[in-house]
Amino acid sequence: MVDEIETIKGNEGLGTDTPKEKKPVAVKKEEERKSFLKQAEELAARNEKAAESMQSSLERMEEIAARKLMGGGSEAGQTMEKPKEETPLEYTERIGRGEYTEEEKGKFAKGE
Question: pTM value?
């Protein structure tokens, strides 16, 4: 490896030329290669960490799905019960007994 020297002229023609050492081209390329390899290693480590995280998340999701399946809960065949509609006669009898819903209490208190 041969050192290259570059001359910088501070004041041209005054004889104040000062030599400045310049890194050899081979050394620069070696440093760039090391820098590139270091970045590649960091990226590989981050990818491995992300893969491990995704794998653990997938395992948890599979476990949750299995528990849900084995839990016996089924959405099929279930019907919602419709509230029984009150007939006018049943309404009159309920009001006569003094049984009011919260909504009715508010209406009667306001005088509606």
Answer: 0.36
Tokens of 48: 């491995």
What are the tokens at 11? 């004041």
Closest to 28 in 3D by CA, of 8, 50, 56, 3: 3
Closest CA to 7 of 15, 24, 19, 16: 19
C-alpha 51/C-alpha 53 separation (Å) is: 5
Long-range interactions of 71-79: CB distance < 8 A, separation 24+:
none
Q: For residues 17 and 8, is the Cβ–Cβ distance under 8 A? A: yes
7 confidence band (pLDDT: 50, 70, 90): very low
The encoded tokens of residue 85 equal 């509609």
Mean pLDDT over residues 13-28, rounded? Answer: 61
The torsion of the CA quartet 43, 48, 49, 52, rounded to 10 degrees, works out to: 160
Q: How confident is the model at residue 16 (pLDDT cuts 50, 70, 90)?
A: low
Q: Where are the alpha helices (DSSP H) in 1-112?
A: 25-70, 88-96, 102-110
